[in-house]
Amino acid sequence: MAAVRLGCTERDRVDAHSVVEGLPTAAEIAEASAKLEEPSKNQILVVRDGSVVGYSTIRWWQERDDTWLYLHRGYLVPEHRRQGIGSAMLSWAEERIRQPGSLRAHPPKPADSDQEAGAR
To answer: What global pTM score does this model have?
Structure first.
């Protein structure tokens, strides 16, 4: 997976020194993958001819205002782009996020009736 990130970085002209978090090492990628909630459901690997050529992950978290945020990231080595693989990775992420039980969907909090009465 680190080789995928490196291949993407070189092709996409990412300056490793200008990125806040820098480029992750293989150990850092492994650690981040292990910390995923349900790694087997929230991460996919794209394998071609026995080599990992891409991967995508989904993460989510709750903000202080109780808003849930979802982040999906995908990396695909340049040699395998423009073949529909990246689109398939994005479709996987979108479908996974929509699956019942995969998200932390919370209904909005009911309005405080006392505050509403005072506002009128």
So the answer is: 0.61
- Among the four given CATH numbers 3.30.2290.10, 3.40.50.970, 3.40.50.300, 3.40.630.30, the one describing domain 2-106: 3.40.630.30
Question: Could you give the C-alpha distances from 101 to 4, 26, 41, 66, 96, in angstroms and in order?
Answer: 30, 31, 12, 18, 10
Q: What span, in angstroms and rounded, lies between the C-alpha atoms of 41 and 106?
A: 21
Domain ranges of the chain: 2-106
Q: For residue range 68-93, list pLDDT tens digits in order.
A: 888 888 889 988 889 999 999 999 99
